[in-house]
Amino acid sequence: MIGRRKQDKAVPAVRREGASQSRTGLRDRLRAWLRHHRLSAADSMHRVMDNPVSSAMTWLVIGIALALPTGLNVALENISQLSASWDSPAQISLFLQDGISDDGARQLQADLAARADVAQARFVSRKEALEEFRALSGFADVLDSLENNPLPHLMLVSPADSAEQSAAAALRSQLQEHPDVAQAVLDMEWLQRLNSLMELGRRLVVAVAGLLVLGVLLILGNTIRLAIEGRREEIIIVKLVGGSNAFVRRPFLYTGLWYGVGGGLFAALLVAASLWFLAWPVTELAQLYQSDFRLAGLGIMGGLNLIILGGLLGLAGAWLAVTRHLVDIQPR
Amino acid sequence: MICFDRVSKRYAEGHDALREVSVDIGSDELVFITGHSGAGKTTLLRMIMLMERPTRGQVFVDGQDLASISPRGIPRHRRNIGVVFQNHRLLLDRTVFDNVALPLVIAGCDHREVGRRARAALDKVGLLQRERAMPVTLSGGEQQRVGIARAVVGRPGILLADEPTGNLDPALSAEIMQLFEEFNQVGVTVLIASHDLALISRLQHRIITLREGRLVAGSKA
Prior knowledge:
Number of strands of chain B: 10
Helix content of chain A: over 70%
Order of helices and strands of chain B: EEEHEEHEHHHEHEHEE
Oligomer: heterodimer
Number of strands of chain A: 4
Distance between the termini of chain A: 32 Å
Largest sheet of chain A: 4 strands, antiparallel
């Protein structure tokens, strides 16, 4: 092309061709832009892969930082799933006074069942309770040697509105006042404690996640800063021949993206590996408690989300680093 | 094409690089800028490509006051200026072809167009057969010609060269100068900073002489 320009030197070539350069079609521009994205992505990938050891270390650091809160969250999910089966219905246990006969107790059961705020009342006589205890506890011989049955009559009351904790608590204190009742116990206090513990756990996870995400951003920012320093001369040359900031920024954003995506992948693998490591003892433990509970994993969507999150963090970290350091790199 | 109007440049440490320089350069001209090192040759060139802004005075390129160009507009401005550096400033981890193609890639040319024009530019400087080579395998003169190919591949209206023959022997230097003359003949404004008076006085072009930041000769064509 330059050779050809020599032949038509009579015309004011520069002006005309200068204009033709800015006439580069929008479609060509778009295609070139996409092409540069593709090339930058591939080039950044090559650079990341060219240093497998240091790249893998970066991935691992990001992976661990992301896996920690993710793993905690998965653990919390499992616990809340486990406790969901106990969440409702709340039940009030009424231990009756010693002197109450079977008939008296049945009368009380009928009275209770008729109440609007009671869904169900189940009567467990002291004899039944002893039989059950004998069967389950394995202390049959000891119990046989007792002269008297030490157990009281028991009434199991399910509140009508079991989801409403305050209603159940009010019902409990009402029943406590009943003359036939020795003690009324609402089996929810430990659940409340568990729930507040879980809430504490969730907040802890959020706080830890926030800190570690910040850490990931800093790690990525530092890694990208080193990459920028390593290519300082190249950046200067590109700026000298008219490269815009976006053009200079692009390969570094892709570098950040690859580090982030790799880190997310490592995090997903770490979480999956830990769950696999824990699955057998957890199942074993659950069987001992006659439960068929199984550890719930991250799932494919959870893993994908983790990788996407890693990618976004990578982009953000790279953006921060590039914005901060590119301004300093001016042709001198 | 290029107009300096009483331009002064004082650096932060108090050194005056340019003092009240006024000069007009037409679009069809090839102009040499000469003077001792530190006389302000490089500063003059750097102002044209906005690596430097004047402390006082105005610089116009193609009728546009450079003071009106914001930092965001600098890349676009530089795309119309080809620059040849004394130390070549090539990307050492890219092939000769990739180096020459860089300005076109930045400008967003279609990649077939990039290939065509980069090869044409390499052909022009006589290095077409070395397009796959890495810059370090080339001689100094060849590297300089790669730099020239990169400077002209985007068909800029202005070509700046800072000591382009600084490290070359006389025969190679003459060859390089001839290349610049050829670009000038097709309408490119060429500014060459050089202290090789023996070489440039043989060529019949305007010579601007700077001494301690002042323009002492060559202000008029």
